[in-house]
Design brief:
mainly alpha; 60% helix; globular; Phage_gp6-like_head-tail; Phage_HK97_gp6-like; Phage gp6-like head-tail connector protein
Length: 110
Amino acid sequence: MADETNSPRAPSTSAGVTVGDMQDYLAIDGDDNVLKSLIEYAEEDARGSIDSTIDIEIYRKLPIFNQAVRTLVDFNYYNRGALSGQQIAYPKSYQYMLNKIRWKAGQSNG
């Protein structure tokens, strides 16, 4: 069975993605405040794209949600300042994960 996180370095944590997780994931040191802001943005973006009525703590328990957050943070971290020239607003893998979560949320809601 394939791991839904799609990354061996992506820990499954009910606390969600932390600055330390992102530093390990990106293999970087520092940038704590930048990463914290990007994590907060990514969580709210993902939550808003799926169902903002569901508490963030519920989403943080889902490994695929945490991986979606990591994916968007990675994308935004390495594309800071260059986003105006991008032809895509989000990575395709991020969209795929959000769609999968939407489908799962729809199954449990109806």
